[in-house]
Amino acid sequence: MAVALAEIRGQPVSPLRPGATILGVLKYGAATGVTALAVLMLWRLGHLRWAPCALVLFYLVEAQGAFLFPAFVDGAHRPWAQAQRCLRAAGGTWVVTPKVMVVASVMLFGGGVGQGFLRSWCIGCLAILLWYEEVRR
After folding, report:
1. Per-residue confidence of the chain (137 residues) as pLDDT tens digits?
2. Residues 63, 119, 129, CA angle at the centre, nearest 5°?
3. Rounded CA separation 1/69 (Å)
4. CA 98, CA 113: separation in Å to the nearest integer?
5. Domain, as residue range, for 115
6. How many domains does the chain have?
């Protein structure tokens, strides 16, 4: 992402900093944890047929950090706070979540339709970076 962001801006690549892994664990851990709790509750209540709806819950939580990695590689001192500012600038959770779901579907399933998994993942990352550039100001 740092290389792509530098290319978009026509600037040199910023020095890499440690901490991206822990941000990823926190971001996706929170989304996965909330989703798992929802599925567990549905199972306990005997409504497991609604479990696929928990996927939306995953992305509602994941959208909170949609701009986290771009903010981090951009050098934000408080990347979570910067990601939240960008989320608000992009229209808030209810606007960002469906868009994130579309980007995620390209990232996760694009390779399955012959576009190549790595290429599809990179396209999704680039989409988020371009969106970040639009809303970060």
Report:
1. 999 999 999 999 988 899 999 999 999 999 999 999 999 999 999 999 999 999 999 999 999 999 999 999 999 999 999 999 999 999 999 999 999 999 999 999 987 777 789 999 999 999 999 999 999 97
2. 40
3. 8
4. 21
5. 2-135
6. 1
Tell me the two tokens of residue 50. 């609604």
Pair of tokens at residue 108: 């996760």
* Beta strand ranges found along the chain (DSSP E): none
pTM for the model: 0.90
List, as own/partner pairs, every contact residues 21-24 make where C-beta atoms lie below 8 angstroms and the sequence separation is at least 24, other chains included. Answer: 23/65, 23/68, 23/69, 23/72, 23/79, 24/69
Structure tokens at 127: 């989409």
